[in-house]
Amino acid sequence: MRAEFQPVVNALSQHIIGKQQQIKLALTCLLANGHLLIEDLPGMGKTTLSHSLARAFGMDFSRIQFTSDLLPSDMLGVNIYNTQQNAFQFRPGPVFSQLVLADEINRASPKTQSALLEAMEEQQVSIDGVTHPLPQPFFVIGTQNPSHQAGTYPLPESQLDRFLMRISLGYPSWEAEKAMLEASSIRRNPDIETCVETQSLVTMQDAVNKVHCSDAVINYILKLVALSRDDIGYPNPLSPRASKALMQASKAWAYLHDRPYVVPEDVQAVFVSVAEHRLRSQQDERNQDSILSRRLLESVDPLAA
Amino acid sequence: MKAGRLPIAGNRNSLIIALVFAVLSISLYSPLMLWVLLLALCAVTVRVALYLGWYHHAPNHRTVNLLAILSASTLAWFSSELGFLLSMVNLLVMACSLKLMLLKNRRDFLQLFICGLFILGCGYIFTQTLFSALFYLAVLVALLIAQFGAYAPRMPLKQQLRQLLTLCVQASPIALVLFIVLPKLPPMWQMPAAKSAATGLSEKVTPGDIARLSQSSDLVFNATFNNALPDMKDRYWRALTLEHFDGKSWQVSPLRKNTREKQQWMNMEFAPAVSGPAYQYQVIAEPSGQRWLYAMDLAVPGDSASRAAIWQSNDYLLIAHQPLMSKWAYQVNSYPHVPLNQASFPFDQRINLQLPDNGNPKTRQWVSQLRQRYPEDGALLNALMDHFANAGFRYTLEPPVMPIDPVDTFLFEHKSGFCSHYASAMAYALRLAGIPARMVTGYHGGSLLTDQVLSVHQYDAHAWIEAHLGDSGWVRFDPTSVVAPARIRFGLEQAINESGESYTRNPFYGLKQFALLAELNHLFANIDYLWSRWVLGFNANRQQDLFQWLLGSLTPLRLTLLFLAVLALIAGLLALYFLPGWRKPARPKHVRLYQQAEVLVSTHTGQARNNQPVGAYCAKVSPLLPETAAQQFKTLCNAFEVIEYKSSPPNTSALLAMRRAQKKLFRALKHSHSSVA
């Protein structure tokens, strides 16, 4: 792994114990300049992960707790009439931060959800005809409860597609949980220091774009995507946006592992997180296994011409 | 689900094979017994119902076994009637029907597939036209699709079809070579005799019958001439001599038949002496279910194969040893100038003077008057012919019915009839006058298919007479030729047009009305002729001719060399298809190097790559390899990754490293093998 990320991973691992893989995927998502969806049960460390990530990169952080009565203006901001100046003044909402944690995104009404997703895609917010650019880098971590939980509005496929990756943390192992309990009894969690400057994160994101992706790897990605479209076993085939996301994420993973070129292993490493939430149909939402993407990976040979 | 077991509902291949089986059984409707056909269709219905899920329980073994015993005993009961070949075909279809009901696993499926091929082969026994060949070819493709599906059930149908057709195209040159060089064995079974009278001439003719035949435009035979064609007016194709007259109908004399059988049994063959110019031609006869053949004038078989299969009878007819159940080609030489005076049996004259005891009083009276006026045979014949020419006779396809004293009615009342009326009347009159005479039926004329090929159809059927005139032997007289000269000079079509008969009953009406249809008809006739001549007619003789043409003289050495060359040709064709690198563009060098190493490693470790990336596979098998080998494999994989994924221009140093690592890997693994051994 690239040397400058080692401290980040180490720092995050102290807070989210035993979840190295998920931490690396979250970093990849950040490097690929995409948004991350964390899907898990309450209390699994979703908020901790996003909070720590913001700290580690020195980004300003805001958290929006989504509820069913949250309005788009609560999140984006409003124009308020300033009696002293006799003019409307824009008061930015919590979305104007470098890292936004949209907590329990599937508890909000679809109107609010789509307002956030629009901001994610456009990287700007338009209120009363005035466009306000969002800060850069802009990174949204959405968390959602599994949709079978009460009071949720499941995100439609079109909006799931906007998230570059979806990860789920899962229960920690016996040892990890024990370590966590011991640590919390000994001391309060130390604050995370900034390991990578926000500005260098932007240059890293540029560097990710320059990672070489050979013809063989592009063909591999195309074959994976094409199979999902040809085979009737996949209810939601992968979109061109998905193939673009897959390549970007693979590049970021290669960059994270300090390799100037992408190999099929990189594609495979990020494939489940990039593809599973796009492949799955709403009905199987409660099925947490990554069956579809695993099957896709097993049926395509990265070597075949 | 157990391995090898097919799902019953929704299994496409079981449906395809059932439908193919249904089509095959229906195409074999004539040799099959009705109950066997019904059994087959029941089995197909069961299969289709199972496929569609209307019904979920395949018939169990006990039921089908009971059915098998019942149908086998029924078949055994009928088998003596049917003869060997037909019983076997029925048995095959019956067994397949029962198997189809039980179809459960892959083994059943393969058995059905192979039986299907056999049934398909049986189809070719019963029909050999080009269209049936194309039909069975299509069925064969469907059958192969079913088998393909059994092995690659997941593959989409379109892809299966594409691969299958590719394979078929690849196989076709090999099939062609085998068709040409494989020895042509004579059939190992006896074809069954015709169950029902086929259309065509028959051994009993009542005047008017041939007129009915003229409604049919079926092909009778094609004749390919080696030299010049005879004139239209001389094309009298003899088929049968009818020597027994009962007052109404002419038929083959029972005595003649009897003698023929005896002679055949005693192997006494009639061999006329021939000399002079001859027409040499090959006849490709359509199946008629009969044994008589068609030839002009005094004809003898033209080559050894025909001589072996044809028996010559005393009335100058050619008779095949086997009934014509399929298209058959024979070579004939016809000698137009040799008189038919060589065979004289004492009974020849006697049976040809035979007369019914009474009837036709007017004719009797008329002939005795004529005889008194013309005591000379020649003069009497001329007078008769003149009478037909000048007494107002009319040629028609629709003669009136003449139930009582037909000759009287014809000669003195209606004066209109078809060729057989004239022939019948004239032969009767000659017999009354004491001149031996007989009716000859066959065909006259024929249309040109190409310059050297004559097609003769059923509407060319004709009847004429032969009278025995002392030393000249049997001489041909055709009263029709003086009544309707156009019939003899230009053929039936012209004769009908001249007589102005209604077109509705005209056999040419439907076909020749439109130029395009006529053209198409001609084209199909031509194709069918070529098919008969070059594919069906490719027999042992032709094959030998071909070999002779290829090799000069047929020495064992040359034949051996020919067969070796053919084997080499087939091997070459197969190599063309199967050698890697011919069909696909060559893979890059580094990929090949890697794949070679991978094959070695996977056989050594027993771990296949299973679509894993190179690096992951390397990590997986490394612990299973000897240390040096693992190291080399890792080097190789790393170099491969660098070439494949890192740099676009070819990286020669990495390639060199790969090659070196591969060599070392091979050596390391070889050592470990020998140490294990």
TrEMBL record, chain A:
Question: Which source organism does the UniProt entry give?
Answer: Alteromonas aestuariivivens
What the record says about family reads: Belongs to the MoxR family.
Cited CDD domains: AAA (cd00009)
The name under which this protein is listed is: MoxR family ATPase
List the Pfam families hit by this protein, alphabetically: AAA_3, AAA_lid_2
Species classification: Bacteria, Pseudomonadati, Pseudomonadota, Gammaproteobacteria, Alteromonadales
Q: ATPase AAA-3 domain location, by residue?
A: 35-165
Name any one GO molecular function: ATP binding
Keywords in alphabetical order = ATP-binding, Nucleotide-binding
Q: Which residues are in the ChlI/MoxR AAA lid domain?
A: 238-290
UniProtKB/TrEMBL annotation, chain B:
Can you tell which superkingdom this protein's organism belongs to? Bacteria
One Pfam family linked to the record: TgpA_N
- The regions listed as transmembrane in this protein's record are 12-29, 35-55, 62-78, 109-127, 133-152, 164-182, 559-579
Q: Where is the Transglutaminase-like domain?
A: 411-481
Q: Which SMART domains match?
A: TGc (SM00460)
The UniProt keyword set, sorted, is: Membrane, Transmembrane, Transmembrane helix
Q: Which PANTHER family match?
A: PROTEIN-GLUTAMINE GAMMA-GLUTAMYLTRANSFERASE (PTHR42736:SF1)
Q: Return the protein name.
A: DUF3488 domain-containing protein
Species name: Alteromonas aestuariivivens
